[in-house]
Amino acid sequence: MTMNFDSIPRDHLPALLRAMPKAELHMHIEGSLEPELIFALAKRNGVVLPYASVEELRAAYAFTDLQSFLDIYYAGASVLLREEDFFDMAMAYFRRAAIDHIVRAELFFDPQTHTERGVPIATVINGLARACETAQRELGVSGALILCFLRHLSEAAAFETLEQALAHREHFIGVGLDSSELGHPPEKFSRVFTRCRELGLHLVAHAGEEGPPAYVWSALDELRVQRIDHGVRSVEDPALMQRLATTRMPLTVCPLSNVKLCVYPTMAQHQLPALLEAGLCATINSDDPAYFGGYLNQNFIETFEALPQLTARHAHRLAANSFEASFAGAKDKLRWARALDAAFAAAVRQGQ
Ligand code: HPA
Ligand code: ZN
Prior knowledge:
about 350 residues, alpha/beta, TIM Barrel, eight-stranded parallel beta sheet, 8 strands, globular, binds zinc ion
């Protein structure tokens, strides 16, 4: 569809960013646990936290790198014990997602964070799957689950987790790879990803957040992923940029996360414009919104505010990319893309 995006005044952009339909493809459900909910669940489950109050916990959210965040993120997840806890956490996210006009959310979850504490994988998956069904029915948000392997643990542990999860195969659409990136290259998980591909699961992996471009190459060639999570360090490697552009390999970029974890000193230095200029299928996502200062619309607003070269055309491109990169069915993707065009057509008419 050709539209004259230039007629949309810049001061209409924040409202349009908020209202446009969009998909979120990189969101760790454990990273949506707000301090208030952490304390409520701790009380409900009799878990003692190493923080005296919500304020004290929030004050600890001053991160210097990925590991400094992960230490607090895993501590926060320790309050999740029962199926209801996982359900309540995911429903809180879906309600926020509906407000941000997210029509599709593909949620990461970390089963090993819970099974290592003695929580059965069935408890985790059943609670999250029930939230996905409820979100569709009550909020009209399409949800799906992607099981992430923790890369600081062994490939044998990933295989064991996969075996346990396969009893619930109908409840997740794919697998991913997260946690401490440096020192744990994608190829450490080649065999388990091969097995997942044989099982017909979708494949994604975090790469090129703190790790070098070589990790992105390895995720592509060794793990044969369908999307790269983060991938922002790809800009350091022109040949990699070429490969990502020509194959329309999606990158699920998380701007607020990148600033909070010091991947970039400020948002103004974020490389999202360069990724889009090079023709990559880049998307905007919130990663761990309870920890990084904002849900998806906040990511859009702050990114566009700090980077004036981003225009209404880029906003449309980013939302269109999110549907293109999603693992939803073709009919849904077409419907969402049409709703996106309708939102922009209305904004163009309003600007004239
Ligand atoms: N990177 C790696 N692991 C994670 C992240 C992230 O941004 N968020 C939650 N687990
Ligand atoms: Zn992530």
